[in-house]
Task: inverse folding
């Protein structure tokens, strides 16, 4: 998933970015509300981590503007202002959750998963697709009950295709959700990851649509996740 991190503290921002990237996410980091609005106009984000103490526009005003402009993904407020009135105001303005600074990275990752799960209309941390089961929290896959070892990027590609089964995703769409700003991407990187997924999970799972992209067709019987 691609995450937009807003944080004006260089040390905390870099540490958070590194921690989330080690968890398999693509993380774009900005230091002002103005930069955040520009990033949202240019890219698709599954989650925004919004610091209320950004320079320039107030964080609550930025939150309201993001929702007014149509952002429908998860917004998690990350703030040192830990009071009941502030949490209520943030939730009423469109936030999905709060986490107070200083925070534990594992807890932050869990809250991101929870907020994104609710935004996607899921009630569990598992995706079921035919004989595949994806454990989102643990980033593990089983096929017909047998564990299958995937790299982080292979898992993220599989998750995107399964979450949007029946829909064709282009190479560019997959890349945008896998790689952060400035991260070097080989021209055939997605093709290589798809090749490895087919070797591990079977060629019938992912269909190539010539000159368009890739698709994981809906199985004959899908168990709702």
Result:
């Amino acid at each position: 998933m691609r995450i937009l991190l807003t944080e004006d503290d260089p040390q905390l921002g870099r540490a958070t970015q590194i921690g989330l990237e080690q968890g398999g996410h693509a993380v774009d980091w900005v230091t002002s509300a103005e930069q955040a609005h520009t990033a949202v106009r240019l890219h698709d984000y599954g989650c925004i981590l919004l610091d209320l103490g950004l320079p320039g526009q107030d964080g609550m005003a930025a939150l309201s503007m993001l929702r007014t402009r149509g952002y429908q993904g998860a917004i998690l407020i990350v703030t040192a202002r830990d009071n009941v009135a502030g949490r209520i105001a943030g939730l009423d303005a469109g936030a999905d959750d709060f986490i107070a600074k200083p925070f534990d990275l594992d807890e932050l990752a869990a809250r991101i998963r929870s907020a994104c799960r609710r935004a996607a209309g899921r009630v569990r941390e598992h995706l079921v697709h035919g004989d595949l089961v994806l454990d989102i929290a643990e980033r593990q896959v089983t096929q017909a009950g047998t564990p299958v070892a995937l790299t982080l990027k292979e898992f993220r590609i599989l998750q995107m295709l399964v979450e949007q089964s029946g829909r064709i995703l282009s190479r560019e769409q997959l890349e945008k959700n896998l790689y952060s700003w400035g991260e070097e991407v080989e021209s055939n990187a997605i093709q290589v990851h798809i090749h490895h997924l087919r070797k591990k999970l079977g060629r019938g799972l992912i269909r190539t649509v010539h000159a368009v992209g890739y698709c994981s067709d809906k199985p004959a019987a899908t168990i709702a996740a």
Q: What stands out?
A: The chain has two domains: 2-119, 126-215. The radius of gyration is 18 Å. The chain has a mean pLDDT of 87. Helices lie at 10-22, 33-42, 59-68, 84-93, 105-119, 152-163, 171-178, 189-201.
